[in-house]
Amino acid sequence: MFTAGKIVTIKKACALRAALKRRGKKAVFTNGCFDILHAGHITVLEKARSFGDFLFLGLNSDASVRRLKGPSRPFNRTADRARVLAALAAVDAVVVFGEDTPFALLKALRPDVLVKGGDYGRDEVVGAQFAGRVALVPLLKGRSTTSLAKKMGK
């Protein structure tokens, strides 16, 4: 199976969302940098997918990651991060966005469920007003790209 077709533009994502809605399918959305994929990411993605029929993953672009995480990040460029994420069974579509938050993407997609990690409070979830509901997923303790980078001396 070739997974590169799961990496879609915002326009294509909106068309997919409309088709899901017509068929009565539940769309789920989550987002992040996903710089170095680890078990914590997989836990959140699998749980997110369990909330519906189709998981859209919003992926921060390289420029966005640099603004959020600093000039030494990302470790992996956008195309590589997108390809790895698209290969995961839990992920149905990867949509890259260049802003610091997925606000505009969420406004366009209007998912049934918006999923974020448990390190967010409900009032901190960007774009919550565009989703049917917000679900917060507990994080795996001690699993983060930042902690991995520290271990590697980066």
Q: Which structural class matches the secondary elements?
A: alpha/beta
Poorly predicted regions are: none
Q: Shape from CA axes? A: globular
Helix content: 25-40%
**How many distinct folded domains?**
1
| Order of H and E elements | EHEHEHHEHEEH
Task: Provide a descriptive summary of the structure in words.
The protein is α/β, with parallel strands linked by helices and 154 residues long. It has one domain: HUPs (Rossmann fold). The protein is built from six helices and six strands. A six-stranded parallel beta sheet has the order 1-4-3-2-5-6, with helices on both faces. The mean pLDDT is 91.
In short:
The chain is an alpha/beta fold and 154 residues long. It is 36% helix and 19% strand.
List keywords for this structure.
alpha/beta, six-stranded parallel sheet, 6 helices, 36% helix
Write the layout of secondary structure elements.
Blueprint: E1 7-8, H1 10-22, E2 27-32, H2 39-50, E3 54-60, H3 62-69, H4 78-86, E4 93-97, H5 103-109, E5 113-117, E6 133-137, H6 145-151
Parallel strand pairs: 1-4, 2-3, 2-5, 3-4, 5-6
